[in-house]
Amino acid sequence: MPALKINVHFGGGAELLFDKIKKREVELPAVDKYLPECEKKGWTIRELLVWIKENLLRERPELFLQGESVRPGILVLINDTDWELYGELDYELQPSDTITFISTLHGG
Amino acid sequence: MPVPCGTGCGKNAALKRPKTGDALCKECFFWAFETEIHFTITKGELFKRGDSVAVAASGGKDSTVLAHTLKTLNERYDYGLNLMLLSIDEGITGYRDDSLETVKQNRDDYEMPLKILSYKDLYGWTMDEIVAQIGRKNNCTFCGVFRRQALDRGAALLGVKCIATGHNADDIAETVLMNVLRGDIARLKRCTAITTGSEGTIPRVKPLKYTYEKEIVMYAHYKKLVYFSTECVFAPNAYRGHARALLKDLEKIRPTCIMDIIYSGETMSIKEEVTLPSQRICTRCKFVSSQEVCKACVLLEGLNKGLPKLGIGKSSKAKKMLEEYNARQNTLEQVIDDLNDTNIKKKSGKKRNGLTDKCNSKTCCSGNCNSTQNNMEDNSKINSLLDEYSLKETDKPVQQLNDVSDDEEGCSSSCGRLGGLGVGF
Ligand SMILES: [Zn+2]
Ligand SMILES: [Zn+2]
Ligand SMILES: [Zn+2]
């Protein structure tokens, strides 16, 4: 299985937890190599969050993640559409998808 | 696979609305979002044609979306409002710089006049100057009290008819929950009001009262509105932080809980014997206060009298107030006596009002907040200040000097996202 290239965006203050970088292009390794125990053939948002935690998240993971999902109050968009319309954690990533995380928890 | 827009417009849905569960496309969402705020404004009779309205602008998401939406609706429905942006600059070095830049962007984007008022303009002192005089230990008392009154003072200077703040449905539900958790029945009764303010004061209105935070953020995202985000407002372990987290967890399971909590707050009836502290006007500065003399005036008196060499700005309002006050030959001690008298009368209704939680961000006090406060500490701070500045020759301690004049209190809420001003406020 080849590497999967996607875009990951952070906004609304979520970028403050990720070196203040708002837009990234990332290359995910084969999921069965990276997370052999999950026995998946493709990446879903669930595994993406594990990868983000281990590779991108710089500080205070509890402000971004809760359990296996994002912390309530972090909005997730899949190609600019609310992930609640796409099965949330179970959405299977496609090449060149853009996944956006926007915090509503940061003040202004 | 894409979900079609629930209105049948033929486009694909972009989001699921937390309030209704509807899946809508961007255009239908914009329309629903704006139209609901229009109904909130007209049903609540928030404005009158010809009014000058100050939008409390912090540069944050809520006040940015509020300014954008009010401009849109004012044009679409011909409200005839004269809208302007009002921002407060506390004068904390480095803290407001970015957010004030964002507010200036709002001014240009929405073609609205912007007035930035500094604490120097409003009180004759910047927070930096106050910190230099009293040290970091006590400055939380000042930042909370001054911030609470800053909008009222600013609006009076601008001569507007009302102040619109960016409080959203999640904020109001959180405030209801907090007031229940603190047993603060007086604030519980008042916190859901869409318009607050008493006779002779400039009312504050909340056009986003029924608007979900998620929708505000999605609206700003899809409209590409520029706003400023501070560090996360969650303070682990702080009382309010837990309440906010609980609310977000509940909202995830059942999104209508936000509206349900607001509805509960609006319709709960309060037992007769609960004495609600009446809102009145400070005899010195004429702004809303629950006391004869508001806390801001007491603090200012301490600063001004205790540090005569610094004086205060020539044109400052504070100086005028001080002169008027001195002309009436009142002494602070008498004022304090008055306060104590008033409080004895009210004691029964106020006994549980005062829990304030830990200051949860660097916004109020440059990160040097003196942790957990409550009334007693607060009062003892005022007492020690008054002592320090030789303002108190009486041995009576100042008790119960807390203002119950607003939905927010202490630095804890100022530091959070009260719309910044709006936050803040
Ligand atoms: Zn539609
Ligand atoms: Zn503070
Ligand atoms: Zn006053």
From TrEMBL, chain A:
Pathway annotation from the record: tRNA modification; 5-methoxycarbonylmethyl-2-thiouridine-tRNA biosynthesis
1-thioglycine modification, residue list: 108
GO biological process terms held by the UniProt record: protein urmylation; tRNA thio-modification; tRNA wobble uridine modification
InterPro entries (UniProt xref): Beta-grasp_dom_sf, Mopterin_synth/thiamin_S_b, Urm1
Coiled coil regions in record: none
Pfam families (UniProt xref): Urm1
Location in the cell: Cytoplasm
PTM text: C-terminal thiocarboxylation occurs in 2 steps, it is first acyl-adenylated (-COAMP) via the hesA/moeB/thiF part of the MOCS3/UBA4 homolog, then thiocarboxylated (-COSH) via the rhodanese domain of the MOCS3/UBA4 homolog.
Main localization category: cytoplasm
Cellular component GO terms held in the UniProt record: cytosol
Alphabetical list of HAMAP family matching this protein: Urm1
PANTHER family reported in the protein's UniProt record: RURM1 PROTEIN
Family of the protein in this entry: Belongs to the URM1 family.
Protein name: Ubiquitin-related modifier 1 homolog
Organism: Manduca sexta
From TrEMBL, chain B:
tRNA(Ile)-lysidine/2-thiocytidine synthase N-terminal domain span: 53-229
The protein's annotated pathway: tRNA modification; 5-methoxycarbonylmethyl-2-thiouridine-tRNA biosynthesis
Its biological purpose: Plays a central role in 2-thiolation of mcm(5)S(2)U at tRNA wobble positions of tRNA(Lys), tRNA(Glu) and tRNA(Gln). Directly binds tRNAs and probably acts by catalyzing adenylation of tRNAs, an intermediate required for 2-thiolation. It is unclear whether it acts as a sulfurtransferase that transfers sulfur from thiocarboxylated URM1 onto the uridine of tRNAs at wobble position.
Gene Ontology BP terms: protein urmylation; tRNA wobble position uridine thiolation
Domain Cytoplasmic tRNA 2-thiolation protein 1 C-terminal per the UniProt entry, residue ranges: 282-310
Name of a matching Pfam family: zn-ribbon_14
The keyword 4Fe-4S belongs to this UniProt entry's keyword annotation: no
Family that this chain belongs to: Belongs to the TtcA family. CTU1/NCS6/ATPBD3 subfamily.
Protein name: Cytoplasmic tRNA 2-thiolation protein 1
SUPFAM superfamilies membership: Adenine nucleotide alpha hydrolases-like (SSF52402)
Cellular component annotations (GO), alphabetically ordered: cytosolic tRNA wobble base thiouridylase complex; mitochondrion
Coiled coil regions, renumbered to chain: none
Record InterPro entries: CTU1-like_ATP-bd (IPR056369), CTU1_C (IPR032442), Ncs6/Tuc1/Ctu1 (IPR000541), Rossmann-like_a/b/a_fold (IPR014729), TilS/TtcA_N (IPR011063), UPF0021_CS (IPR020554)
One term of GO molecular function: nucleotidyltransferase activity
E.C. no: 2.7.7.-
Keyword Chloroplast recorded: no
Keyword set, alphabetical order: Cytoplasm, RNA-binding, Transferase, tRNA processing, tRNA-binding
Subcellular location, record wording: Cytoplasm
